[in-house]
Design brief:
Elements lengths: L2 H11 L2 H13 L4 E2 H8 L3 H13 L3 E6 L2 E6 L1 H12 L25
Antiparallel strand pairs: 1-3, 2-3
Helix pairs in contact: 2-4
Length: 113
């Protein structure tokens, strides 16, 4: 990941509503959630949600897909993992240390390229 892309992603997440949306979508996993479900769970106005989803999409953190009359938003797991990798690539400067290991393993598996 390039530094510019990391800054864009981090800037998008540096806002409480967007961070809440992203964390909700990560919890939902690759299938994502409909706009209506996101709106209901986070109690957001439609225009507010739309604005924040646009920002997260622009940052490459979420994707959308249309299924019938519903729009689903899902986390871009691959992009998220690249961001985490960028943030941790120099952790402990190559020294094998338990302090550098992830604290908690997730259930999501990377999506093949």
């Amino acid at each position: 990941m390039k530094e510019k892309d990391a800054i864009t992603a981090l800037a998008a997440l540096a806002q409480p509503t967007r961070l809440s949306i992203f964390r909700l979508l990560v919890t939902a996993g690759p299938e994502g959630l409909t706009v209506g479900v996101i709106q209901e769970k986070l109690e957001l106005a439609g225009a507010t949600l739309s604005f924040h989803l646009k920002e997260l999409t622009h940052a490459g953190l979420v994707t959308s897909r249309q299924e019938g009359r519903f729009v689903y938003y899902a986390p871009d797991i691959k992009h998220m993992n690249k961001l985490v990798g960028f943030l941790t690539e120099n952790c402990c400067q190559g020294v094998d240390s338990a302090a550098c290991a992830p604290q908690k393993k997730g259930k999501c598996k990377p999506v093949p390229a």
